[in-house]
Amino acid sequence: MSAHKTILITGASRGIGYGIAHRFATLGASIVLLSRSAAAVDTARGSLPKIPGFANQSHRCIVGDVGDAVLWDDIRRNEVAGKQKDIDILINAAGVTHHSLLVATRTGVVEEVLRTNLLGTTLACRAVAKNMLGRKAGGCIINVASLLGLHKPTAGSTVYAASKAGVVGLTRSLAAELGPAGVRTNVIVPGYIETDMTARMSEVARIAALKATPLGRFGHVDEVADAAVFLVENGFVNGAEIVIDGGLACT
Fold first, then answer.
1. Under DSSP, is residue 10 helix (H, G, I), strand (E, B) or coil?
2. Which has the closest alpha carbon to 171: 153, 184, 152?
3. Terminus-to-terminus CA distance in the chain, angstroms?
4. Can you name the CATH fold of 6-250?
5. Strands, E assignment, 30-168
6. Handedness of CA 118, 122, 128, 132 (dihedral sign)
7. Hey, is 44 helix, strand or coil?
8. Is 167 helix (H, G, I), strand (E, B) or coil?
9. Burial class of 82 by CB neighbour count within 10 A (0 to 12, 13 to 18, 19+)
10. Strand 60-63's sheet: what is its strand order?
11. How many C-beta atoms surround the C-beta of residue 182 within 10 A?
12. Average pLDDT over residues 181-199
């Protein structure tokens, strides 16, 4: 179902977003990568494969801040250089993390985390869903949350956890709103995945996380991409929370 589709992916220049983009490109999808960094997203686009036999497959970039409502108004109004009507699938993977006790967290940091993780995901869903509803051809939205926002809150993760819990609630509500029109909305809930975010963990925190995970390792981006493919390909999954955490939620 993903071959010949056009997929808009936020946070696509690195980490989980890029891993998902690369996987769908190998399946013959055309990828629209959105990132704040022009250089990073252009490099990412250039490294995506194009599959022989898929003459219409192409990859393109959008540079902007997902938390900027004007960006999403422009995307919808300008139809991504005239091609927004093709967007079959939206994957919201853009996110920032932060660790500090709430009482010690500056207002600016609170705003940045909520703006990117929750507001950005909400604005993206609103903009693209309007086009999906207008097309009357169904669609698929996948949001990326975090285990910290669902099963494993920890001290110091308050703002981040709140933003990701909001993404889960957003997803479930949208599944009910958009489902009757054939637009499915699901959420991937990763635990610790090997990305640049986890690479910045202290050695003490990393060891503790590994000990708490029954499989004894962090997940790989490819394993998250597997879940994204499943959610796209299975046409009866709507409002689901796919936890990918090596069993961490069970401990």
1. strand
2. 184
3. 36
4. Rossmann fold (3.40.50)
5. 30-35, 60-63, 87-92, 139-144
6. positive
7. helix
8. helix
9. exposed
10. 60-63, 30-35, 6-10, 87-92, 139-144, 183-190, 241-244
11. 15
12. 93
Average pLDDT of span 87-97: 95
Single out the residue of 28, 24, 19, 15 nearest to residue 200, CA to CA: 15
pTM of the model: 0.94
CB-CB neighbours of 178 under 10 Å = 20
The four Cα atoms 113, 114, 119, 125 give a dihedral, to 10 degrees, of 70
Tokens 């983009």 identify what position? 21
Indicate the residue type of 197: M
**DSSP symbols for 190-234:** E-SBSSHHHHTS-HHHHHHHHHHSTTSS-B-HHHHHHHHHHHHH-
CB contact at 8 A, 188 and 20: no
Tens of pLDDT, residues 196-210: 888 888 899 899 999
Catalytic amino acids? 160
What per-residue confidence (pLDDT) applies to 201?
Answer: 83
DSSP annotation of 117:
I
Query: So where are the chain's domains?
Result: 6-250
CA-to-CA separations, 117 to 17, 47, 66, in angstroms, rounded: 13, 26, 9
Spell 101-115 as b/e; 16+ CB within 10 A means b. Answer: eeeebeeeebeebbb
Closest CA to 55 of 8, 19, 4: 4
Instruction: Please name the residue that has the structure tokens 């108004």.
Output: 73
Query: Contact at 8 Å (CB) between 39 and 14?
Result: no
Say if strands 87-92 and 6-10 run parallel, antiparallel, or are unpaired. parallel
